[in-house]
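User: Show me a protein chain along with its predicted structure.
Assistant: Here is one chain, sequence first, then structure tokens.
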Amino acid sequence: MKKFFAMMVASISCVAMLAGCGNSASTTETTTESAQESSVASTETAENTEVGAPAEPVTIDKLTIGFVPSRDPDEIVTATEPLKELLTTELAGLGYDVKEVDITVGTSYEAVGEGLSAGTIDIGLIPGGTYVLYEDGCDVILTATRDGLSIESPEAKDWNDNKPTEPTEEQVTFYRGLIIAGPSEAGQAISEKVNNGEELTWEDLDGLNWSVMNSSSSAGYIYPSLWLQDKFEKHITDLSHAVQADSYGNAFARLASGQIDVLCCYADARRDNEEKWTTEFGRTASIWDETNVIGVTDGIYNDTISVSKTSDVMDDAFKAAVTQAFINIGNSDAGKEVISIYNHNGYVEAKAEDYESERKAQELIKSMN
């Protein structure tokens, strides 16, 4: 399967910025470099894009932005409150007088996709997997860039030997999904096996209590499923004990309490929950001491900003203005602080073709059901 993905990635044009990662170290380095080069090129293109302001100011009574619940909903709403003024100001400079910006957090990833399709949400910050599932009802306009991480390896033991994971200044357009074991007895036992260099078996994994996200979550479901398929010809639905969490925060709380043994998440999720681990979650040792990586997925293309095809306000001219506005926000210090809630550091223009590997992933998931 990894060879299949490598071939598929190579076939996509460089403007796609795709950074799916192959099996060998050399493949990973080559693909990562390609993604970084195309990311820079796309950034330069985006910065030079001229958005023609309308001859007369256009009034938009209300603009609704939907976020997926990858973090605690209250935390997202609080952190993104300044986005309302930032976006209003940027759009005003582009000829659009937006009277109200409404920020909502969906009850699920699917809820945001359905809102975009229905036109009740104008703009959605959604993962690539959610975009692909709902692309009949929405258009992708931007891909997020994020800080690279101090560890970049397809091998679980490398993540354990070199922890904690720290951000770097290098900007990337991909991330990995991790399968992380916690402090439960079973979690510690499988961690020890990985760190001793022993091969895991399906029986090892099937005996654990798992936490996964919903089926459109790239890091929380889709790519861990592909990892299981590649390693064991199995799927998440084949696991005897797997429960769905409504947010990564809740999943880590369950991991800390021992209710689950392992969870599926994005690569820097432990950084996002490091403080809560010893406060809200009640642990005494650090999250880095009590958790270990037992599985690493292929590279996942970054989150999208997508816009509704059925929104009453989202015509081509306004779509271009929204695109430029978010690029400008991502280039400002105040904007970077707001979008950091999703580990975004900026945005580059995107096209539907950029997410072809995500479509292939979705097709494979469907074939496993």
